[in-house]
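Aim 2 progress update. The chain analyzed this quarter is reproduced below.
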Amino acid sequence: MVLFAIITRVFDGMPLSASTDLDMHFELKESKRHAKTLARKANHYPTRCAMQCGNHIVYFVKALGVCFMTVCERAYPAVLVFSFIEELQREFMVTFQSREVQQAKRPYSLIEFDSFIQKTKQRYNNTRTLTSRLNLSEMSEDLHNNPPFEISLTELGTDNNKDIKTYKTGGPSRRLEPMTWQSLTACVLAGVCALLNFLRCFPFLNVIVIDKETDDTWFSAAGFFLAGILSCSQLYLLLYPAKWRILLARLLFALVLLLVYLLRNLRNIWQISFHLAVAVVVLYHTANRQLEAKLPDYNV
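Predicted structure tokens:
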């Protein structure tokens, strides 16, 4: 029987689609794990390969930058396996363009193809009615003349503790949810605050250079400059994901409040209210703009 099938991108091993199986048998899970490890190293092997994993055999074929792989029982005829892979390959190439494969950013981006994999797998697992409808003579002759390259588990170098995924570079890490018009407004206001703070900093710098003033002038210049930096940092946390993002946003908010208090004598009540309101709005939208939801677990 064909137990599992997976389609991956050759250059980085990122899975594009797979059969959605519920069989949690330990031996099959191990064979799947070895198959996925092999998929990440498929670029280093010939176009057509086979690897024995206990009572199962992993087969794969590479074509046009895509790897088509199956896990089958040892007794299942190889000619049917490669016929099965050929059908998947033919339908996949018709359904998806090469550009879609190359631009896929996340694992299982083409998971909708699993319905075709499931139907084809069921058909090939019913060998009594299947063999009468297939002409396997050409495939048998091809396999006889060009047998698949044999890979051993030892050569694959699998290690339970070092089975590291290499397809992470195929796309970016999780992004933030799309921005609403309210959060875009908060971005603009944070940018305005940063600009105003930097502009207020320049006159004090001129005084320092020309009049050689120190103490209060230095403090004011440094305060407005730091306030501009804090506003830019708030804007960054609102726009981009970061580690400890919410904690940092709260810390920046507290520092902004402190600077607003320290610089209160250099601003009127409307300026103070504006900077406080913007700080609150930016913190609110930063806390409410969550990471995008992960792709669902397809149990593959």
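The CA atoms of residues 201 and 242 lie 29 Å apart. The two ends are 17 Å apart (CA to CA). These observations will guide the mutagenesis experiments scheduled for the next reporting period.
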